[in-house]
Amino acid sequence: MKRRDFIKTTSLASGMMLMGGLDTFALDSSSPITSWFEDSRFGMFIHFGLYSIPAGEWKGKIMPRNWYAEWIRMQHNWPNNPGIAKKEYDELIKQFNPTNFDARQWISEAKDAGMKYFLITSKHHDGFALWHSKADDYNISKTPFERDMLRELVDACNEFDMKYGFYYSHWLDWGHKGGALPPWDQLKDKQPSQKEFDKYWNQKCLPQVRELASEYKPSFFWFDSWSEIADQPYVTEAKIDELISTVKRIDKSCLINSRIGTKWLHSKKDSVVDYLSMGDNEFPKKAISKPWETSGTMNHSWGFHKHDFHWKSSADMLRLLIDNASRGGNFQLNIGPMGDGQFPTASIKRLREIGAWLDVNGEAIYNTRRAEIREPKWGRITQSKDGNTLYLFVYNPLEYDEIFVPRFRREPQSATILENGQTLVARAFNRGTYIEMPDYGVDQNITVIKVKY
Ligand code: H79
């Protein structure tokens, strides 16, 4: 079997026949490897690393607050690139000591927020690894902290029954001579040669990903690239195949995202990945049938930026979650913990508000699928997997005396407000379902109505 076939079949349940006799690889065709991912809908993303210490400020100079704090090494002193010499940046290794880090606290905060999986930057663009990597020395074991953060988090995830995955920067790596730099004109002369990149690839990237897959057993990887990857020479189609099969050979149910490069570099080959990742904070306006997710920030920066106060409200973030769920996608909400290892108070407040809402309304989000009904003006719709229940998310419900689900001919059996069980008048009308809104008992922001058919 050609490698290409191997990769394709591992990401598709229907490919099991092609696996020919490998019983241990057989997938249950009724539960493709992505179903847990789709059922989950809401995950936590964490950006943490050396950059969390300067937090957007270097020697008194503040990065613009709409820039990314995890990019400080390249962007400090803009447009001089790189802004901070590696030797100077590496002073942070001696300072790295997040003594208030508590893996169980992070994971229980995620759990209480209603998140079903956890994702963390195992290695961001700066090249620094948050685990005891045998493949490369530039890692957390060299800091005063010493502890293996990923190991502690993996243990906590297992304890709290939380799925987990790793962000891994496979293309950019500013900690290794052969890693690619940002694809900017000013950096052209400083980019590695092809040979140097191959060395990085074979000596650091592949071994580290192998290490993560085999020793830390994530349920998924989140590889990072964006449109500019289409114009670079390093991460070729062959390398993408190699990276995918490196993971799949160890665990073929480990999911891989499209930002490994396919979305931009080989857009017709999205079938080799398991789920699509949108651009940062990109919320598509239309439904997508392949499993997909948006990763988004609570404020602007991903890594903690102490001058970034552009916090989104909990209600706004809930709407992003609902919008995505109704269009068949997930929402991975980012937290940038502070250098001492704690979540910012502003993040905790929002996590808890979102968690309180999901506590009573989560049934309308988890384990649902997008409903193939035209998106109504009054809000959004999801449906149970068996198709016998619709969940109607009415945005600004006080504006409506009644709402209508068009072109849905079945006879409704009951309609209730999910939050308090209040029964509403519902009937089949004009080839759809007509529902009377109540005069009281609605949330002024989002009310969820459960309609059984
Ligand atoms: O990890 C987060 C980002 O650091 C990473 N992806 C998310 C999940 C990412 N890196 N680069 N990009 C996304 C796209 C490129 C953005 C940039 Fe800029 C353009 C960096 C520098 C110029 C805009 C302006 C953002 C920072 C300055």
Task: Label this structure with key terms.
alpha/beta; disordered N terminus; globular; eight-stranded parallel β-sheet; 12 helices; 26% helix; 453 residues; binds ligand H79
Strand content: 15-25%
Estimated helix fraction: 25-40%
| Cα-based radius of gyration, to the nearest Å | 23 Å
Major sheet description? 8 strands, parallel
Number of helices: 12
If strands are numbered along the chain, what order do they take across the biggest sheet? Answer: 7-6-5-4-1-10-9-8
The N- and C-terminal alpha carbons lie at a distance of: 47 Å
Compounds present? ligand H79
Structural class: alpha/beta
Mean pLDDT: 91
Q: Segments where pLDDT lies below 50 for 5+ residues? A: 1-30
Q: How many beta-strand elements? A: 18
Task: Identify the overall geometry.
Answer: globular
Account of the 3D structure:
By secondary structure, the chain is of the alpha/beta class. Helices cover 26% and strands 18% of the residues. The chain contains 12 helices and 18 strands. Mean pLDDT is 91; it is low at 1-30. The structure holds ligand H79. Ligand H79 binds at residues 67-68, 70-71, 224, 226, 280, 295, 302.
Question: Which helices and strands occur, and which strands form pairs?
Answer:
Blueprint: H1 3-10, H2 35-40, E1 42-46, E2 57-58, E3 61-62, H3 72-75, H4 86-89, H5 91-95, H6 103-112, E4 117-123, H7 149-159, E5 163-168, H8 194-216, E6 220-223, H9 237-250, E7 255-256, H10 262-265, E8 276-277, E9 292-297, H11 314-326, E10 329-335, H12 345-361, E11 368-370, E12 379-384, E13 389-395, E14 402-405, E15 414-417, E16 426-429, E17 432-436, E18 446-452
Parallel strand pairs: 1-4, 1-10, 4-5, 5-6, 6-7, 8-9, 9-10
Antiparallel strand pairs: 2-3, 11-12, 12-13, 13-18, 14-17, 15-18, 16-17
Helix pairs in contact: 1-9, 6-7, 6-12, 8-9, 11-12
The structure holds ligand H79.
